[in-house]
Design goal:
With 627 residues, the chain is of the alpha/beta class. The protein contains 21 helices and 25 strands. Helix 18 links the parallel strand 21 and strand 22. The longest helix has 21 residues. The structure holds alpha-L-arabinofuranose.
Length: 627
Amino acid sequence: MSRASPPAAALRSALGALALAALAALLPSCGRAARSDADGRFLVGVSQANLTEPWRVAMTEEIREEAGRQRRLRMIYADAADSSARQIEDVRRLMGFGIDLLIVSPTEAGALTPIVREAYARIPVIVLDRAVEGYDYTLFIGPDNERLGREAGRVASGLLGRRGGNVLEIEGRSGSPPSLERSSGFREEIGKRADVRLFEPIVADWLRDRAEDELAARGPSLPPVDAVFAQNDAMAYGAWRAFRAAGRAGTAFIGIDGLPGPMGGIELVRKGILSATFTCPTGGKEAVGYAMDLLLKKEGIPKKIYLRPRLVTGESLAGGASSEARAGPGASPRRGPIVLGFAQVGAESEWRVANTKSIKSAAAKAGIELLFEDGKQLQGNQIAAIRSFIARKVDVIAFSPVVDSGWDEVLREAKEAGIPVILTDRRIGLKDDSLWLSFMGSDFVEEGRRAARWLVETLKDRDEVNIVELQGNPGSAPTIDRKLGFEEVIRDRPSYRIIASESGDFFRAQGYSVMKGILAAEGRRIDAVFSHNDDMAIGAIQAIKERGLKPGRDIVIVGVDGIKDAFKAMAAGEMNCSVECNPILGPQLMKAVQDYMAGKDLPIRMITSEGVFTAATARRDMIGREY
Ligand code: AHR
């Protein structure tokens, strides 16, 4: 069993004292309303899974240090000692002390989901590192574990060179999301090599000693191993110790965490014990920053933030070049404004118009010189625009890809020109994610799920539900992903059937013409319309009315976007639901550009926070909406 490392023991006693002191100060005010106290300070509870893993010790230390810089925060810490039951109690106890916001790093996703949902119903909740199931929290901050696994796979493949070889993976806690995702990314990458044999993994629960013991037990039966990928540095070090004790040589060890300090991943690489590791930002500092933003009710807080890992090798430590998209030129003295090139999809919908307006107004407000090109729905136009930005040597390029493939060449040109690319709104299918710096936009798959969940709940008493699907432009991320999410939810419900599915390219007029054709063919069989955006839904409403049917009653209509005209249609009883897709990405984009230019690391992905709107509250909800 692993012994807590000295820093952990010191931190635990410090936190223990802190927590006790905070509780003593609070006892008279137990159960107070969640608001700042007399001198404007807020109370934040921190529920940590354990203080035995060095990475968690570092996370908690980071939270403590950053909170110490925030005059308006008082903190209470709880260490669950890796017990889910205890962490549930910890969260309940923290709530009982009237905290204004909860930061929780769960032991396990499933076990902690109910109590996090309960807390979220009352106060903002920031989930750190390991997610919970669903979306019942305010903000998730953590690593992109699948990408970490893929990058570790690339490093392992590179270390094996042309000779190929045998690879062993050491997993953290079996079945935990981080472990599953890291493994998935790693195997996807390594699986590309026919000359690489991947052994049955070893599970070591993130612990150094467990990895050492497991390998010592299994070592003799193991054939030669050319590379070991351990899902954290502690287990990689344990594996290395076991191989050394068994007299094995010639094995490369790859880890994750890249912590500084004694026997942290950085030192293990410096000593040549590890061939590579990845810094995996703990998110502690970001959590405190966003906690303040939430408590001060600032706008534009994302729903999910995936932090950027950095590859650490002997070469990078020696100051060698790294192939990755580095943080910006830093605070180098600038002559004139930042120049941003933006290639837009087109002007196909009210959503797109609002998106363009947001980008232009945010650039003007930020003093950023914006070169804006309208792609008019054609990938060729967007590619030409990006090339023009490269030729004009802009500082940063951003675009919303009209389709999800075919960007490799132009993105390589931008990379060779040393110009970073930020994706907004729509992702691309490119797996070589070193070609773009950051993504900000929606989770389109979840939007599809939300549309289907609403429909299933609304029509649950029907024996059969025949659905018409109006798709967006073929090959685009929203079309692919919304369909994916919608079908995932209805897949196990045979009474829900998509009887017609055609593209209206996100245009209102095409939504009308496509629906008119489907009505002629299917007539009264149609029970519902699932439209990939509100514009096409509104076109379909016109066609339904012309057919002599009542939209919103004879045919239930659910769209995506949450545009003003959808609210008007819902208020008029002609539409039933709109799943929000937030186009107001301008402020986030400009902040990312400024952060990059200031040399800050950008998150790999930022997912916007969105809701679901129905006819029942449309009149109230539409008041004050920005688009
Ligand atoms: O990429 C977002 C989608 O593109 C919106 O849902 C749609 O209205 C727009 O055309």
